[in-house]
Amino acid sequence: MVRVRFAPSPTGYLHVGGARTALFNYLFAKHNNGKFVLRIEDTDVERSTKESENSLIETMKWLGFDWDEGPDNGGNCGPYRQSERGEIYMEKAYELVEKGFAYEAYVYPEELEQLREEMLSRKVSPHYDEEMLAAFDTPERRAEYAQKGMKPVIYFKMPKKDFKLKDLIKGEVTFKEGTIGDFVILRSSGLPTYNFAVVVDDALMKITHVIRGDDHLSNTLRQLAVFEGLGFELPEFAHVSMILGPDGSRLSKRHGATSVEKYREMGYLPESVMNYLALLSWSHPEEKEIMSMEEMIKQFTIERVNSSAAIYDDQKLRWMNGMYIRELDDDKLAKLAIPYIVAAGQMTQEDADANYKWLREAVASIKKKIHQFDEVPEMISVFFEEPSFNIEWTKQIKEDDTDPAFIELYNQVKAADSWSIPDIYNLFKAVTKTVKVSNKKFYHMLRVVLTGEEDGPELVNIIHLIGRNQMIKRLERVVDTI
RNA sequence: GCUCCCAUCGUCCAGGGGUCUAGGACAUCACCCUUUCAAGGUGGAGACCGGAGUUCGAACCUCCGUGGGAGCGCCA
Predict the structure, then answer these.
(1) How many other C-beta atoms can be found within 10 angstroms of the C-beta atom of residue A266?
(2) Considering A253, A395, A398, A440, which one is annotated as catalytic?
């Protein structure tokens, strides 16, 4: 039984990189009929917050993730918050001490820093070892600790040997002996450090495949050693390359929108975000680009995961979101667009409800134009506000020789008695039949006269939606000046 | 500094020794369609980091160089 986990730290919003890691884990689990576990890595009490955890979960649900075991829905290997697993780590840490794979140290952080600088000045890698740390373990120091109620820090004794890792993505990786020194597994606060907690949890939660970012590849050396010390069976590892910003450095806030929540706010669909993320370092065997979750699950294999880093450039995501938007039916489209219209103050929720049919057509008329829902208000503003008249329009119309067409149109509109979309089409046919005119120039300027813009919703829809009276009013201004 | 990872169009990917005059997608440009703008269609331009080696043959294998990234915390 395949078991994978996604283990975020609740220190902020879900990042696109984190979402991609979660997605790969999820796809791998589903593809293999395995389990997907959500574990919260909140051992850093300084930075972890409950709000972050909630937002993380909320965002993941929005994206469409579901997990078989996790902090909110439980499971057989819980608890799923590291902050609730303190005793387990403590127990395992002392188990290592008893076995001789770890030791207690009575050293103060300042002293450690001193040692470190000393080694650095001697141009040696700053590694700590038992002998070095034992110097601080005096009866006086122990008494001091006892008096202050402090606990010794537990160091893991790094074995003097090479470690080999067969990574599913990176291939065989060898960590040579002496690369790192002994390291802390249990802090003086009694809380475990990352590299220790991860191993204990992955083992106890029976994780079979650890799929994570390759920024953890170096850490794997420590984890390999801990796995061995604890006598746990090793899971498979797959280190996915990172997502970089456009300048090639690690993706961060300064590269713009990097949180999934931000994309949600901008009006991105979860389907397009997931689809786009799946394509970063992975590809469909037939190079398909737009695909459903089912298709991704069906096709996902680690073998097809690329080992090089990807630069995050959301232009393609934007395009993809447009593709997904165009597949939405008009009701769904309206439902998603209305909050943006209300937020922009163009309509109240009550108005929107009362004029739903009209609004649905208005939104449908811009379906092919928008890529994100936050573009809706700007795009449909023509329906709410009359553009201010510009005499340049008249000049341009005269120059185009389309003025007779405008006059004819004006007369026909005044004479019109019904205003359905087919009626409008017929009306235009009648105009262009009566007056010889360049369609391109005529319709272009008509749009400008009606909206003040050179692009926007479908012209027929604009005419239909603003209504005959508005049409006359807006045309009048130009006809009067011809 | 030390250790590890990575290297194909501007960007995301395909390519797992000959079928590569290197394929697709986004972006870009041109044209077509069209009742404007879009959407859609067609086409163009655009890349194997450098150097050795292995081989009859290398984008694909090896080594070196260069460039980029990550890790080296009582952060995760």
Answers:
(1) 17
(2) A253
